[in-house]
Please model this.
Amino acid sequence: MSTSFKSAMDRLKANIRDVPDFPKKGIVFKDITPILSNGQLFGLAVNIFVERYRRKSVEKIVAIDARGFIFGGAVANYLGIGMSIVRKKGKLPYKSHQTDYELEYGKGTLEMHVDGVEKNQRIVIIDDLLATGGTAEAAARLVEKCGGEIVEMAFLVELGFLNGRERLAKYPVFSAISY
Ligand code: AMP
Model:
């Protein structure tokens, strides 16, 4: 890891705020809004993904509801490619694929438009944080229902102690910052 890359990571990590007992008792929520509200830090975070995928022939970003949209949109725009969105049930207007999932603090259903990804399209899935991996695994299932090829799953933050990586073992996983 280069010194400048490491110091960028350290600066980002120093600006992630721990919020204990949100949204439920016992959960320490990793609040990334201090990064978003500083132009330089937000740029640093987006740039980590842009540099990583610039030369990997990625054709589309699939971003996960809701904070994944923030990074996914910026990264797709820098890479000059499109983005599709994975949303919680009932939010998408058009015909959608659906899949159930579990997460660190709840259960739900995720959806993506049936034309969100094309067959064999090279996809990077982006979210802000990897916890147990349930959400990302569900997003991957939606991409696969459309016939997309998952190049990598990318997260700004990974909670390593929740073993999300093991759950996503069949996919390449990248995270910028781990705990
Ligand atoms: P999981 O499916 O368990 O990997 O949970 C990941 C999803 O839930 C991501 O969309 C995160 O934004 C959110 N999430 C889960 N745990 C946390 C946490 N401790 N802090 C912030 N976001 C979280």
Q: What stands out?
A: The beta strands are 17-20, 28-31, 60-64, 82-88, 96-103, 106-113, 122-130, 149-158, 173-178.
